[in-house]
Automatic annotation (TrEMBL):
Family named by the database record: Belongs to the EamA transporter family.
Compartment(s) of residence: Endomembrane system
Keyword annotations from UniProtKB, A to Z: Membrane, Transmembrane, Transmembrane helix
Record-level GO cellular component terms: membrane
Regions crossing the membrane: 7-30, 36-57, 73-94, 100-120, 132-150, 156-176, 188-206, 218-237, 249-270, 276-293
Name assigned to this protein: EamA family transporter
Main location: membrane
Coiled coil: none
Domain EamA: 6-145, 159-288
Top-level lineage group: Bacteria
Organism taxonomic ancestry: Bacteria, Bacillati, Bacillota, Bacilli, Lactobacillales
Length: 304
């Protein structure tokens, strides 16, 4: 296996785990006594601790170096509160009120909000490819939420709101830690941010009785926290050592593909042709953006 093939395999497996995580969450919300806030807090806590412990063996000196300078830890906390929590909590709320495929696809609107932010920040019109991407994404979203019936909204308004909010959260997750990721290992930054984010949910989770989950339910929670978060993230990150970020960004399409296929087969989620076309149009924006860049680009970073 060549290094390129290895990188492609890592990216596909990692994003597939993310897609499986969304479907698992949909099952937990529908068939188990699990709420998004509890699952997000537990997921971030377990994954964050595992990432920091992992970093102790690989980047020992960086694990605590990020806390030595106030500018770094302030930005880390900002990343956790304004980036990590919105991207994860809004996504799971979108899954709860809708389903895993639509939530995952709407989260891919993140690059659209990055385009808008950069245009406003630099006070200039977006590039032609950006304008095309925005038009394609917006029409795809329209198809997704109306299911081709243009006179009415077929997807629950709450699912649309939280899905679009997840896209905004994804954009913030990508933009906020750019400076930190230039100085520190991504595992360290993400691990600490997840731990900080989990502490926000700790009072709520401690005030609620422990969910009465069966063995399958606890296995699902453990899968979301480990394979669906930590291992998915590590594999995706490892792929960047072998292939370009733009290529990895395009391979992220395996996440909504996995979520859609498994949701239809395992959970019997209704997902018709209009939704598939709309979803494909939204995902096409990732390909359009990837074709417009050479090398690293802020919109190619992934969260999980």
């Amino acid at each position: 296996m060549t290094e390129k093939h290895k990188g492609i395999a890592f990216a596909i497996i990692g994003t597939t785990f993310w897609g499986m995580s969304g479907v698992t969450a949909q099952y937990l919300f529908a068939d188990q006594p699990v709420e998004p806030a509890w699952l997000v807090g537990v997921r971030m806590g377990i994954a964050g601790v595992l990432l920091v412990v992992w970093s102790l063996f690989t980047d020992f000196h960086e694990v605590f170096a990020i806390w030595r300078h106030w500018r770094d830890w302030v930005q880390l906390i900002l990343f956790a509160i304004c980036g990590m929590i919105p991207s994860q909590y809004c996504y799971f709320m979108a899954v709860k009120h809708g389903n895993a495929p639509t939530a995952t696809i709407l989260q891919f609107l993140g690059p659209l909000f990055i385009i808008i932010y950069l245009a406003l920040r630099h006070l200039r019109w977006p590039r032609r490819i950006d304008m095309i991407s925005m038009a394609v994404a917006l029409f795809g979203t329209y198809l997704l939420v109306t299911k081709g019936q243009f006179d009415s909204l077929q997807l629950a308004p709450a699912a649309v709101f939280w899905g679009v909010s997840a896209g905004v959260g994804q954009a913030l997750y990508t933009l906020i830690p750019i400076r930190l990721l230039r100085q520190y290992d991504a595992k360290v930054v993400t691990g600490w941010a997840m731990i900080i984010g989990s502490l926000v949910f700790l009072p709520h989770n401690l005030s609620q009785p422990l969910p009465a989950l069966n063995a399958v339910g606890w296995a699902g929670v453990l899968f979301v926290a480990t394979f669906g978060t930590m291992f998915a993230y590590l594999l995706y990150l490892q792929s960047l050592d072998y292939i370009l970020p733009a290529t990895t960004g395009m391979l992220s399409s395996f996440e909504p593909l996995t979520a859609t296929v498994l949701s239809i087969i395992v959970l019997h989620t209704a997902f018709g042709v209009p939704e598939m076309i709309g979803g494909a149009m939204i995902l096409a924006t990732a390909f359009l953006q990837a074709m417009a860049v050479r090398g690293p680009h802020p919109t190619t970073q992934k969260t999980g």
